[in-house]
Write a structure and sequence with these properties.
Strand content: over 45%
Largest sheet: 6 strands, antiparallel
Number of helices: 0
Distance between the termini: 29 Å
Radius of gyration: 14 Å
Helix content: under 10%
Shape: elongated
Number of strands: 6
Structural class: mainly beta
């Protein structure tokens, strides 16, 4: 997967998945932070979403930045 925004950021992600989750992990790039988005189904109407960041000095050590739940209402 690839991410573009209006601030000229381009981030390439490796995508992995299981029956209940999707994980997008950015590639390791020298002197740049690394990102990981995880979406996990809780039930048929609810998903947990988390966003983690790893520093360039420790690209395998992700730390939680944001986490929350979203639910389908209709």
């Amino acid at each position: 997967a690839i991410y573009f925004d209006n601030e000229v950021h381009t981030i390439k992600y490796k995508v992995s998945f299981t029956e209940k989750s999707i994980v997008l992990t950015s590639n390791i790039i020298a002197n740049a932070p690394r990102f990981r988005f995880t979406y996990t189904a809780i039930d048929d109407k609810t998903v947990n979403a988390s966003f983690e960041i790893a520093t360039p000095q420790a690209p395998e050590e992700f730390k939680m930045y944001l986490e929350g739940k979203a639910s389908k209402v209709k």
